[in-house]
Amino acid sequence: VQLQASGGGLVQAGGSLRLSCAISGRSSRTLGMAWFRQAPGKEREFVAAISWNGGSTYYADSVKGRFTISKDNAKNTVYLQMNKLKPEDTAVYSCAADPSGSLNTHGYEYDYWGQGTLVTVSS
After folding, report:
1. 66 and 121 in contact (C-beta within 8 Å)?
2. 3 and 96 in contact (C-beta within 8 Å)?
3. Per-residue pLDDT tens for 38-66?
4. 15, 33, 49, 80: which has the fewest Cβ within 10 Å?
5. Which conformational region is residue 50 in: left (phi greater than 0), alpha (psi within -120 to 50 degrees), or beta?
6. d(Cα 117, Cα 4) in Å, to the nearest integer?
């Protein structure tokens, strides 16, 4: 399984960005997927996760109500729509895949990782 994240960039506070994670090597229909982020000097943290069928989602409290994770199985792609961005959302965002299809919040539960995409939110 290979994951390719894209969509990061520079945005002003209050703005929006949509991140994409293109999946190859396996159907997204069988994968639980998640987004994590790591800010400079900080540990990686969980952002959002979605189950294999898209029926369940889970968000970190810090992004709940502002971010939305979704899957387009026809395109084998997972998205993270980020609205009302704050400077504290600045980080490298990475997507991860769990072949068990479960909805998990810990990084060690994910077997596959994409390279990160940088999101910078200016105040």
Report:
1. no
2. yes
3. 999 999 999 999 999 989 999 999 999 99
4. 15
5. beta
6. 9
